[in-house]
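Thread: quick sanity check before group meeting

JM: Hey all, I'm pulling together slides for Thursday and realized we never actually wrote out the predicted structure for the chain we discussed last week. Dropping the sequence here so it's in one place. If anyone has concerns about the input, flag it before I start.
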Amino acid sequence: MEKKKIAAQLYSVRKELAKNPEETFKALKEIGFEAVQLDGMRGHSPKEIKSLVDQYGFEIAGMHIKHDRFFHDIDGIIEEALLFNCKTIYDKYIDDEEQHLDGYVKTKQQLLRVQEQLKGLGFRVGLHCPEYDFNNQIEGVTVLDYITAPEYGLGIYAEPDTYWMSVAGKDPVEEFKKFSYRAPIVHLKDYKKGFDPKDMDNNLTELGSGDVRFDQIVRWGEANGVEYYCIEQDYSKIGMLHSLAKSFDYLLSI
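JM (edit): ok, ran it. Output follows.
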């Protein structure tokens, strides 16, 4: 795997980014990252963040967009995506109040409408998958499977996440296999077995410190169209930048 395919999800450094964006981008560059995935501007203007992205030479490995914007702010999404020269956009997560059958149906219909509307501009629309997308089901399948299943030749891309799949008691290696050439960006977080699934303080850990078989994930990804392996660390005991550095070095080693 090439180094340039390893990206940092900026949600990981949300606090650092809010406080000092330039120092944050500088630190990520020093770790070795050449790509980042956007997750909001954290109180800064898109132009300011874009300037720093360019200054430090980062590629943009997709953008996470708030759920409601796909319903009410398509023009704003387009403007932001074009500013960052990134046409892979993900619904960050389905809002809690939409976590029911009607909400899932409505979400799929709207994301397909957006994909149909934007495909001529070269956009790819996808869905990120927190834990409830695996614990909840619709029509006998997971929410992610349902929403990304193609309809009439049009499909929503998946952004599978090793941690949330593990929280739901599933094997990420097997789950990833469903998304051959339909998951250009994947989320990597390690998971330690033996703790309560909701105990993120203890079951979420740096890559290589838990039980996810990342060697098999990467082998599958290299054969099935993965463009970026995005490291996300929601929580850290050793300092977020140290966690990201540890995960980066491990991923590079395999």
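AS: nice. The mean pLDDT is 95. The first strand starts at residue 6 and ends at 9.
JM: adding both to the slides.
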